[in-house]
Amino acid sequence: MGNTVAIVGRPNVGKSTLFNRLVGERQAIMDNTSGVTRDRQYGKSFWQEIYFDLIDTGGYVVGSEDIFEEAIRKQVNLAMEEADVILFMVDVNVGIHGLDEEFANLLRDVQKPIIIVANKSDTFKKGNDYVEFYGLGLDAKIFPVSSQSGSGTGDLLEEVVTHFETQGIEDQYKGLPRIAIVGRPNVGKSSLLNALLGVERSIVTDLAGTTRDSIDSLYNLYDKKFILTDTAGIRKKAKINEDIEFYSILRSTRAIEKSDVCIVMFDASKGIESQDMHILGLVAQQKKGLIVLVNKWDLVEKETLTSKKFEDTLRERMAPIDYFPIIFTSVTTKQRIFKSIEIAIEVFANKTKKISTSKLNEILLKDIQKFPPPSHEG
Ligand code: GDP
Ligand code: GDP
């Protein structure tokens, strides 16, 4: 978990081609296993049974098409903050480009493994052209690849996976519910976490190795153990306030993917906004347990907006997804915040419940007898 690779580089070197090759090709297989996002810029891939997340930073940074200093800086920052391994892509047909040098200058200060991908090494003849990129002066290995044909990508990935931290931290917590708190900026995610942290001895330990995209903490609240993923806190730590939206989408996507149950928070005073629906959609699409917290309920004039009205509107917009609990909370007045956690744990229990075949038959048989399935060809 948390093996993340980011591709950086100027436009047109082939970042999205490599991304699509690594993510797209494997998508068919991945679809059958775990939840995958079909996001163009963020996806999952694997090499020799080692799974990793891949980010095409060019696809994420708005304005990176008409490149400017700011976009380069953002791409490098994104890679620095989110990735374990950075692929710096260049084009052997062009050689060292002025913008490549700008990337190299910023990457020089990054304390993470960097690998230079000399793309478009399509033919044997071009196979050695990559050596010129040693001229960028980075402490990095260079791999000639052709993203178009795929040649060289195996050797590249072989190197990439050597930089992942060893797995196994997590197994000890296997079976515990992983709860993620997601939602738009400012809905109250950090406040909720702080309120939960305030409960004496509720937090047992910070799990190691999870500090990059989120902080996972093992909680033991009212004798119930669970792991809470804090995506909100990081943002503040990382001082990336100017890009809040952009990071929050990426981080929400990742937090959702890792979790068993998602607590999606809304701001009652703002009503339902399209980004809220987008997040709800992601959770549902990945078949995660879902509960909705309509927070800041203290700010709402109860005469004009009742919980029933809010609930009806939300359920209508989410149809046909109708199975999730909706809880009206106020973190400020501590209204129903522990109940939210209790319900999240209940959702997890229901989600992982095993129903015996005999029990299933017993329930289904009645309906099947009432409505027998049509017989095929007699
Ligand atoms: P990005 O802007 O860095 O994401 O670059 P793209 O992936 O959009 O690729 C830019 C162009 O380079 C496209 O026309 C690709 O078809 C082409 N391209 C990408 N990889 C290769 C490659 O390995 N060989 C060749 N010859 N062209 C490539
Ligand atoms: P985040 O961006 O989702 O982590 O949101 P924050 O936890 O930083 O909260 C954003 C703002 O909303 C802060 O000023 C909080 O004090 C405020 N806030 C959070 N929860 C509530 C609530 O239940 N009621 C009210 N009135 N304000 C809240």
Describe the model.
This protein is of the alpha/beta class and 378 residues long. Helix content is 37%, strand content 20%. It has helices at 15-33, 57-60, 69-82, 98-107, 153-161, 189-197, 232-237, 244-258, 274-285, 307-318, 337-351, 357-370; strands spanning 4-8, 42-47, 50-56, 85-91, 114-119, 141-144, 178-183, 203-206, 215-221, 224-230, 261-267, 289-295, 326-328. A seven-stranded mixed sheet has the order 8-9-10-7-11-12-13, sandwiched between helices. Strands 2-3-1-4-5-6 form a six-stranded mixed sheet, with helices on both faces. Strand 4 (85-91), helix 4 (98-107) and strand 5 (114-119) form a beta-alpha-beta unit. Helix 3 packs parallel to helix 4. It is globular. The structure holds guanosine-5'-diphosphate (GDP) (2 copies). Residues 183, 185-191, 232, 295-296, 298-299, 330-332 line the site of one guanosine-5'-diphosphate (GDP).
